[in-house]
Amino acid sequence: MPNTVGLSFTIIGWYYFYRYSVNHTTRTYLTAMVFFLLAASMKITELSSPIIILMLLLMDRFRIVNLNLGSGKQLFLKMISLWAIFLVIAGWVFYAKWYNTFHGTSQFSTYTFPVWNINAEARALVLHKMKVIWMTEYYLPFTLYSLPVFALLTIFFYRRTDKVLGVASFFLFTGLIAYAILWFEALGDHDYFLIGFYILPVFVVINFFLILRSFDVKKLHLRLLQMIIIIFLAFNVYHARQRQDVRYYSWMNDYPEMQDLYGINPYLERLGISRQDTIVFYPSPNIRPLYLMNLKGWTISDYSEITPEIMAKDSTMMEDCIRKGAKYLFVNNTASLMKRKTMLPYTLDLYGKFGDLLIFRIPPLKRNYRITDSTDE
């Protein structure tokens, strides 16, 4: 997932920007911009940080809020570096849109899923999933409920906090709300969409510690506080470890269905299937199987009800894939494929078998297999 990598680069970027807010060194500022560019290149939502920094610089320049960011010092260079980030990412988005159109795919999402696109029943289902399934995926309930308390304390003791982080937190929270509205439909099944905004709890916690540090805490009380924080972190690390296992190996992930793909590459090499070959994989609603096998190609989704329209689309898609260079059909669920009658003519030439995964040559060079053999008792 690029989300966590993007968040990591964003945290590094903010570290250097915070250093810049202290020492006003142009080199430090440009270093921050490099990491923000890397972050946004991983995930476009990481552009939220450069946008916020643009707003911070303008607010400081025009004295709306005194943030001590060097005011107008080398403002042109700062603006150019920020707009360079926006232009690079915009170019990448235009390329992705062209790629989708050229290859006839929508796997690389370049559009939003706003709340107004779905009805009230669907909105209620998304909220239910968010509350029941993933609300506590990232943090323990106690931690989750502590964050709003910390945020309120930073507002109440704002004179004891860092002003740059405080204003940035406000804009991040506003951006989070706007983003949730624009991508609301996807949030029920894709909690990772919000990973980029988990920089906000970082800022909130840092300001909370700045408040604690501003008080005259006795040494004994400080040691006690440190022990509480260590225990608090230990519980959260344990919780994160548990949730990680659940997300990889339970119903929340397709690992049981895809586990053969994790060790298939040596077998593919023996078959003579290389990274240069193009395949069709069935069934999968996403392109994860291609990543796992390090192969290029297309995936075909499964459906609970196979209509004549779907079968006609199957036939057209298979012909189109073969025309574009597909050499093999990988089938991971033969029972499901039995319902896709128009795809059965492509399951005659069995080329390999790895666990439950069948590999067929397309178009067939010979007839050596009936797919019903794998489903017969």
Helix-strand topology string: HHHHHHHHHHHEHEHEHEE
Question: Can you tell me the overall shape?
Answer: elongated
Distance between the termini: 40 Å
Number of helices: 14
Measured as a percent range, the helix fraction is 55-70%
* CATH fold naming of the largest domain: Rossmann fold
In the CATH classification, which architecture of the largest domain applies? 3-Layer(aba) Sandwich
Enumerate the strands of the largest sheet in spatial order, edge to edge or round the barrel: 2-1-3-5-4
What can be said about the biggest beta sheet?
5 strands, mixed
Unreliable stretches (pLDDT < 50, length at least 5) are: none
What is the gyration radius calculated from CA atoms? Answer: 26 Å
Could you tell me the number of beta strands? 5
Structural class by sheet pairing and helices: alpha/beta
What does this structure look like?
- The protein has 377 residues and is of the alpha/beta class.
- It folds into three domains: 1-110; 112-215, no CATH class; 257-374, Rossmann fold, CATH 3.40.50.
- It contains 14 helices and five strands.
- The protein has helices at 2-23, 26-42, 48-61, 75-103, 120-134, 141-156, 163-182, 199-214, 219-249, 255-258, 265-271, 288-293, 308-323, 334-337, and strands at 278-282, 296-299, 326-331, 350-354, 357-361.
- It has a five-stranded mixed sheet with strand order 2-1-3-5-4.
- A hairpin with a 2-residue loop joins strand 4 and strand 5 (357-361).
- The longest helix is centred in the middle third of the chain and has 31 residues, at 219-249.
- It is elongated, with a radius of gyration of 26 Å.
